[in-house]
Structures are given as structure tokens and as C-alpha cells.
Amino acid sequence: MIKDKKFILNKLKETPSNDYFDFHYWADYIEIKCLFNPDGIFTKDDFLDAYNSNKDFNSKKSSNDYFNEDENWSSDIELTDVAFTKDKEERFADECFKMLVSRSHIFKDYYPFEINDSRRKISCKKKLVSKNRCYIFLLLSSSLKYFKQQQSIFTSSFEILSLNVLQNLLPEKAEAHFFGSSNSVLKRRKYKGHIWDKLNQLKTDLNEDIVIAKKSDFPTTDYGDSGFDFVAWIPNGDNQSHMIIFTGQAACTIKWYEKKYSSSSSALKSLIQVSVPPINLVFIPFSVRNCDGSWHRKHDIGECVLLDRQRLLFHIKENSMAYLSLPCDKVIQELLKIKESAYN
Fold first, then answer.
1. Which of 199, 256, 311, 342 yields a CA-CA distance of 20 to 30 A from 305?
2. Within a 13 Å sphere around the CA of 17, how many CA atoms are in the beta-carbon half?
3. How far apart are alpha carbons 294 and 287 in whole angstroms?
4. Under CATH, which number does the domain 151-325 receive?
């Protein structure tokens, strides 16, 4: 039962605070507004109305600022001119809807929306199957500020989904486990107790000899993960070191790019003396893509294997039950009913 309907609907009045350069965040906002609109439709005009009604919530950089920096856009008209400003807002909205069209091609059957031929209207599909709800789950997990009450179930479910994807990436004999302790859904886990005990157990699992960190380095109350949500390795049929190792983070925060450092090779090597640097993976529900499918802000990725919304859905295809087994699906189905009761 969703108890915070009014909070969600009021919160959705807030447009994103991201830069206008980051079109993918604004595309997410349009998709979410479409889901919760009474008729399941959100037009370009609706978006511009929302934008102009909620400028207090917008990024400090205006759409004028963004397009002024574009060398392909020039005009002798003063920025205070109403018509000129409106033209720039229209262009910004066009770019956002262009992103939606790109997504409809990229995500195909998973995409829960349809775009009309004029690219001015996005509509929610009448019947949302499990593939569509999986996309919606990743979409809502990318915008947790609108779903405070559901945050824990979304983040916990995303961690489980990420672990399932990690397991699918590895050979059948590989070992992949949660190392963190904050997941509120997972009941069974390999690593338990104080972080010092976990590190010693991991050292043994990796057939390594030395934990570099000292027990005194950690508070007695530290039952955390030292920055590692996941650890994985491929056994070699012996008890010797020099194994293929993986570390990982699942991040639903907009500053996901900061998480890659906490699960990096150097982070693990500062705790355990490993013979071979691990491969670092970062799982995010965001779609950090440009319209042509290339990375947006590629420099943010750094030295990690990034699995964003597009890559996650690609790998989930190999295990169609991965999403349906998550506790978030019931929450998603309840959330999708909000527009039916809140506006009647």
C-alpha cells in the first residue's frame, strides 16, 4: 500500500536541478511525468509549462546559458527578448524529446512508452508487461528524490539485480557475492560480522596471504563493506593465488561516478595484498547516453566497467526472471495506480 501519494505528486512538480547539458536526466523526468499523468500522456507543451512553472527548482544555468555556449546558435537579439527566450526553450524541449525517440529505438520491447510521429507527445503503453516494468524500475531508481518511502526497497532491489547481472557475466563456476551489509531485503549472505572478519574471510577465499589493514584501523561498530558492494572471482581448481577477481558497486545516486573509487583496484589493494588487480564494475540505473548511443560525459567513467540502464537490460535478457523475483515489482505496480486514485 502506497502511503505517500500526495508527497510523490507534489514532489513531481519539481523539475530536475541538473544542467541542461545533461539531457538524459530531463528525459527521465518527462518519462516519469508521463507515467503519473491522468491520461498517461505528456506533451512537449506540458513539459514547457512544467519548466516555466518551476524555475525555482531548475539548475542555476538557464537554457539560454546552455544554447549561448553552442557555437551553432547565434543571434543579435537581446536575451531579454521574450520570443528569443521562447525559441531557446523550444529548442531545449526538442532536444529532450529527441532523446526519448532515441530511447524508443535503443530499448525496444523494454521501453514502456510510445512517441508520436511529430515527436511532440509521449504516451504510456496501455499494457505494461514485466519488461516494461523492469525499465520503469530502473527509471524510478534513477530519481529517488521523488520516491522517499520506496527508496530502501528500490536500492536493495537494484543491488540484487546488479548481482544477478554480474553472475550472468561470469562463467557458471564463478563465485559472486554481496560484501556489503546494508541490503534490507537479502537474508542470506556469505560475508557477515565486523569488517575485519570479512576482509580475512575474503583473503582466504582469494587464496591470498596478507590483510594489509589492521583491525585497529576500523571502529568496533564497523560492520560495513569498505566500499565494496560485490566481490567475485573465478576458481582455478586449486588453493593458489593469482586469480581473476572482480569488485563492484551498485549506485543509485546522481554522483555515481564517485563510487567507482571506493570499489577500485587500488582500494582493495590498500586492504588486502592481492596478486592481480581486480576488475572494477559499477552498476547504475541511469541511462548515461547521448542520442547516438555514445557515452555522455565519458570522462566520468574512468577505469571501471560501467553497466548503465542500456547494458543492464541487455544482460537481463539472458535471465528474464531476474526482475520478477525482485520485491520492487509489487511496489512498481502499486505506484502505477496512483494517477488513477489521486486525480479522480
1. 199
2. 8
3. 11
4. 3.40.1350
Locate 331 and state its grid cell: 511496489
pLDDT digits (tens, 9 = 90+) for 90-106: 999 999 999 999 999 99
- C-alpha distance across the termini of the chain, in Å: 18
User: What pLDDT score does 65 carry?
Assistant: 55
What interhelical angle do 44-53 and 82-107 show, nearest 10?
130
Instruction: Find all residues with CB under 8 Å of 26, minimum gap 6, and list them.
Output: 15, 16, 18, 20, 96, 99
The predicted pLDDT at position 58 comes to: 52
Per-residue pLDDT, 3: 87
Take residue 327 and report the three cell numbers written for it.
520485491
Q: Which value, to the nearest 10 degrees, does the dihedral of the CA atoms of residues 235, 237, 241, 242 take?
A: -60
CA–CA dist 322, 134 (Å, integer)? 9
Q: Which residues contact 214 (CB under 8 A, 6 or more apart)?
A: none
Parts of the chain with a pLDDT under 70: 55-82, 84, 318, 340-344
Tell me the three-class secondary structure of the chain, residue by residue: CCCCHHHHHHHCCCCCCCCCCCHHHHHHHHHHHHHHCCCCEEEHHHHHHHHHHCHHHCCCCCHHHHHHCCCCCCCCCCCCCHHHHHHHHHHHHHHHHHHHHHHHHHHHHHCCEEECCCCCEEEECCCCCHHHHHHHHHHHHCCHHHCCCCHHHHHHHHHHHHHHHHHHHCCCCCEEEECCCCCCCCCCCCCCCCHHHHHHHHHHHCCCCCECCCHHHCCCCCCCCCCCCEEEEECCCCCCCCCEEEEEEECCCCCHHHHHHHCCHHHHHCCECCCCCCEEEEECCCCCECCCCCECCHHHCCCCEEECHHHHHHHHCCCCHHHHCCCHHHHHHHHCCHHHHHCC
Amino acid in position 88: K
Domain(s) labelled CATH 3.40.1350 in the chain stretch across 151-325
